[in-house]
Amino acid sequence: MIEDDFIEEGQRIATDAKSRLATYGVKGSPMPS
Fold this sequence. Notes:
mainly alpha, rod-shaped
């Protein structure tokens, strides 16, 4: 189902964002704004 795929992708993105937050800190990116 499309809805299930969307939820699964959202969870993957959220996990990736947490990984980046842990790696780079609050700014979430090593690059300057």
